[in-house]
């Protein structure tokens, strides 16, 4: 079986490391050719000497499974490269935050990603978790990978199928709405949830997001807001988010697929907190 991992960053490096431990032909791809990558965990760094190929230069055989672990902002461009890397039955697994990008691909398999880390210039710092949740349906190639992950000693990655995947995906989107918005706009880490006024504002934002998700039918129980706030407060106080790290690096963010996605689907709902947050992120992104 041929496997590709595209994007060897905070998420993709962990997936790549685990795939290279399986008895399959795995190729890693980035924006340019590079020799190896380094992952730091629990204060210790380890270098993995696997070649990362230039995705734009690939002219080889088609892959059976393609994990795409880039920023969501890169997906539209990558979708144009996939036809020459895939056959009719290739399973393309999208490992990004947010929603609104499935349409770029013919038959994508979106994953809810639980891999927390930060990409530095010379390494990836992996904070916690190594788990992907996908929809519960037959996926011949991915099912083989799931079996191999369970049978291989030393592997940390888990790929699980969830019967209620739609609800779980929307819950993760709501979690991303709250913590990504507040950490990015405050330029601060999860420690901000020590502050009562930050928690109160986040609760209002989550409430607006919940109303949007449940606008046509109830997908998420309203009690999930309390759970989301508890999750934020359980994080390491120094842990950032993808949008926080993007803002700190003065890079583009994925807000089109999180905050803007909510705003585009709100209909006639009144969402004053969300609207202010989107306006501020529009301003940050302007001509960047």
TrEMBL record:
GO terms for molecular function: 2-dehydropantoate 2-reductase activity; NADP binding; phosphogluconate dehydrogenase (decarboxylating) activity. It comes from the Bacteria. This is 6-phosphogluconate dehydrogenase, decarboxylating. It catalyses: 6-phospho-D-gluconate + NADP(+) = D-ribulose 5-phosphate + CO2 + NADPH. One of its GO terms (cellular component) is cytoplasm. Belongs to the ketopantoate reductase family. It comes from Salinicoccus roseus. It holds the Pfam family ApbA. Its EC number is 1.1.1.44. Residues 165-285 form the Ketopantoate reductase C-terminal domain.
């Amino acid at each position: 079986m041929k496997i590709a991992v595209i994007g060897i960053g905070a998420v993709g490096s962990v997936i790549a490391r685990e795939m290279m431990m399986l008895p399959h032909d795995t190729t890693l791809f980035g924006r340019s050719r590079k020799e190896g990558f380094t992952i730091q965990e629990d204060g210790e760094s380890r270098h993995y000497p696997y070649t990362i190929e230039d995705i734009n230069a690939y002219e080889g055989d088609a892959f059976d499974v393609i994990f795409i672990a880039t920023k969501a902002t890169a997906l539209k461009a990558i979708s144009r490269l996939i036809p020459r890397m895939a056959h009719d039955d290739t399973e393309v697994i999208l490992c990004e935050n947010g929603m609104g990008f499935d349409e770029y691909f013919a038959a994508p398999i979106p994953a809810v990603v639980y891999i927390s880390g930060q990409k530095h210039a010379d390494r990836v710092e992996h904070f916690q978790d190594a788990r992907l949740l996908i929809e519960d349906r037959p996926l011949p190639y991915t099912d083989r990978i799931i079996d191999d992950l369970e049978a291989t000693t030393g592997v940390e990655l888990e790929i699980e199928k969830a019967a209620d995947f739609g609800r779980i995906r929307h819950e993760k989107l709501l979690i991303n709405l709250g913590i990504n918005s507040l950490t990015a706009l405050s330029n601060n880490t999860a420690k901000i949830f020590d502050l009562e006024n930050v928690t109160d504002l986040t609760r209002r934002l989550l409430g607006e997001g919940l109303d949007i998700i449940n606008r046509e039918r109830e997908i998420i129980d309203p009690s999930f807001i309390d759970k989301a706030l508890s999750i934020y407060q359980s994080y390491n106080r120094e842990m950032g988010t993808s949008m926080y790290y993007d803002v700190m690096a003065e890079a583009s963010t994925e807000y089109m697929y999180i905050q803007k996605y909510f705003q585009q689907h709100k209909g006639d709902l009144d969402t004053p907190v969300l609207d202010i947050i989107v306006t501020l992120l529009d301003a940050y992104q302007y001509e960047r």
